[in-house]
Amino acid sequence: MSNRTNISSGSEWEPKIGYSRAVRIGNSVAVSGTTAPGETVADQTRAALATIEAALVDAGASLQDVIRTRIYLRDVSQWQDVAAVHGEIFGEIRPATTLLGVNALIDDALLVEIEADAIIS
């Protein structure tokens, strides 16, 4: 079995809930659902993707290695704002992506949550 590396962001919630920001096993990295504060859904998307990128770097990966993202959006009518930021950040990487409308996230101030999976080539 490949070695497992748990990556922490230092969040107080990681030990309380029992999760890691990201987990690397072999050349695969899974990044947990990531939220971030911000005034708009676009601001929150940009900040969440920056946190995801930092977790990937800590795991020895990069945005170039991302093969899938999953986006959970509280107000699905704002999908174009989220998609524009996602497209700007990922550009030609173009991971497989799912965008879902959800009724709620863990905090009412949060508008978007993003997960990512990467395979280090």
**Biggest β-sheet description:** 6 strands, mixed
- The proportion of residues in beta strands is 25-35%
Q: What is the highest CATH level, the class?
A: Alpha Beta
Tell me the radius of gyration. 14 Å
CATH topology: 60s Ribosomal Protein L30, Chain: A
Our count of domains comes out at: 1
Give the fraction of residues assigned to helices: 25-40%
Describe this structure in words.
- This is Enamine deaminase RidA, house cleaning of reactive enamine intermediates, YjgF/YER057c/UK114 family.
- It holds the Pfam family Ribonuc_L-PSP.
- With 121 residues, the protein is α+β, with helices and mostly antiparallel strands.
- It has a single domain (4-119), classed as RutC-like (60s Ribosomal Protein L30, Chain: A), CATH 3.30.1330.
- 29% of the residues lie in helices and 31% in strands.
- It has three helices and six strands, in the order βαββαβαββ.
- It has helices at 13-17, 41-58, 79-90, and strands at residues 4-7, 22-25, 28-34, 66-73, 96-101, 112-119.
- Strands 1-2-3-6-4-5 form a six-stranded mixed β-sheet, covered by helices on one side.
- β2 (22-25) and β3 (28-34) form a beta hairpin.
- α2 packs parallel to α3.
- It is globular and about 40 Å long.
- The two termini are 19 Å apart.
- The mean pLDDT is 96.
In short:
With 121 residues, the protein is α+β, with helices and mostly antiparallel strands. It has helices spanning 13-17, 41-58, 79-90; strands at 4-7, 22-25, 28-34, 66-73, 96-101, 112-119.
